[in-house]
């Protein structure tokens, strides 16, 4: 076993004190996430808010239900932040929050914020964070349809299908 590799992976996936990550049953707050990304060194804070919409492929949606394997999802969040800091070393703050449980149309399901001195890097890092989260995090959603039916969908599958 390569202990150097194990040590670097372990340290890379440890959260930085200035970053913030959460999986929560409670409603998410854009103001809270923004404030956690804020610092006087930033020239930009980019926030991405994912919400429950009222339809998928023309089929009426009444609610979404999210479940996560929290320990692994948090490690994915930490790794996303570590990757961001490797690609965009000027990033000051990374904030990733995701809801679990049953959410109604209009509720926020995910918030990602990146604070950075410059807007272009902030936009790129924020997009990287949400795209990587959707692809890698062990988070699933169940769509509840107006006709009473429901179906589970992997968030990663949504990246391909456009959910």
TrEMBL record:
Coiled coil: none annotated. It holds the Pfam family MoaE. It comes from the Bacteria. InterPro entries: MoaE_sf (IPR036563), Mopterin_biosynth_MoaE (IPR003448). Gene3D superfamilies: Molybdopterin biosynthesis MoaE subunit. CDD domains: MoaE. This is Molybdenum cofactor biosynthesis protein MoaE. It comes from Brasilonema octagenarum UFV-OR1.
């Amino acid at each position: 076993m390569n202990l150097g590799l194990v040590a670097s992976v372990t340290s890379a996936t440890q959260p930085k004190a200035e970053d913030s990550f959460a999986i929560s049953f409670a409603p998410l707050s854009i103001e809270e996430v923004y404030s956690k990304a804020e610092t006087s060194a930033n020239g930009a804070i980019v926030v991405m808010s994912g919400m429950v919409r009222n339809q998928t492929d023309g089929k009426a949606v009444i609610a979404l239900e999210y479940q996560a394997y929290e320990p692994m999802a948090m490690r994915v969040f930490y790794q996303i932040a570590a990757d961001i800091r490797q690609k965009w070393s000027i990033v000051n703050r990374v904030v990733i929050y995701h809801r679990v449980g049953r959410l109604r149309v209009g509720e926020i399901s995910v918030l990602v914020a990146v604070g950075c001195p410059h807007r272009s890097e902030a936009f790129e890092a924020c997009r990287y964070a949400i795209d990587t989260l959707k692809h890698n995090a062990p988070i699933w959603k169940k769509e509840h349809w107006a006709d009473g039916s429901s179906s589970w969908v992997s968030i990663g599958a949504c990246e391909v299908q456009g959910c």
